[in-house]
Specification:
Oligomer: single chain
Order of helices and strands: HHHHHHHHHEE
Largest sheet: 2 strands, antiparallel
Number of strands: 2
Number of helices: 9
Radius of gyration: 20 Å
Distance between the termini: 38 Å
Strand order of the largest sheet: 1-2
Structural class: mainly alpha
Length: about 260
């Protein structure tokens, strides 16, 4: 494979907490649960300990769920019917192209799993794979629930979607995509994989034509407008969305709760 703008490391799994063994987290949850049960039978000052135990339990439960989702996204095969259809329609037997698109799809799911709020789909090439997955609702639902714990809805932007909402979705995608690939979203040396794919593959109608520097400027302005936001503020997602004319595309895949 020799695609300008893509690093060989981009094909690898991102540097995320994907533990091969999660028994310590499970043990912590069980221990905290037993402590909660014990303290629930006590009164007085020990009620404070009950609250502390509850916070600890929720914290580790959230981390455990994210571990499970990250591991599932990285290790669950993308449904073969969609990959075969994509290869017939777009890649014409180019396995390296398929490898990039599949990696881009997994990156998108990882961003969705970590983001607080809706997330833009930055690649038309990957969005086409999403559309093909949607052609079999049963398999798509099964796949989504296995990797995300819920069905990832797909709904294009409408005239009722505000410019501020669209920008927030794009900036969550930008921040998440940069974090996955070890790129500083405020001072990027290059576009992260998911944002670079359309240009690298010479896609006829790319989702965007924005440079890394332009995205960085917009991201800095967006983060400044948020109250108490930080570059690492990602947890669970309510969905995803994509494509607006300000970023070079309209009608791309999007979704959310």
């Amino acid at each position: 494979m020799n695609y300008s703008g893509i690093l060989q490391t981009d094909l690898n799994s991102p540097n995320l907490p994907l533990p091969s063994r999660v028994w310590p987290v499970r043990l912590t949850i069980v221990t905290a649960g037993l402590t909660l049960w014990w303290l629930s039978h006590l009164h007085g000052l020990l009620f404070f300990l009950l609250l502390v135990s509850a916070v600890i339990t929720l914290y580790f439960w959230g981390r455990y769920r994210r571990f499970v989702h990250f591991h599932a996204i990285e290790n669950t095969p993308v449904p073969g019917f969609a990959l075969r259809a994509y290869q017939r329609r777009f890649s014409a037997g180019d396995l390296s192209k398929m490898q990039l698109v599949e990696r881009g799809w997994r990156d998108f799911l990882l961003i969705v799993a970590r983001a607080q709020g809706a997330v833009a789909m930055p690649s038309q090439a990957v969005d086409e794979l999403w559309h093909l997955l949607l052609t079999d609702p049963v398999q798509y639902e099964t796949y989504c629930k296995k990797v995300l714990g819920k069905v990832l809805e797909h709904a294009p932007h409408t005239g009722q979607t505000s410019a501020a909402a669209k920008e927030a979705q794009w900036m969550r995608a930008w921040g998440g995509g940069c974090v996955l690939r070890g790129i500083d979203p405020r001072h990027p040396a290059r576009l992260p994989l998911l944002f670079a794919l359309d240009g690298v593959l010479n896609w006829p109608q790319p989702m965007h034509t924005v440079t890394a520097g332009e995205f960085a400027s917009r991201y800095t302005a967006w983060k400044t407008s948020q109250t108490g936001g930080s570059d690492s503020s990602y947890s669970s997602s309510s969905g995803c969305s994509s494509g607006d004319s300000g970023c070079g595309g309209d009608g791309g895949g999007c979704g959310g709760d």
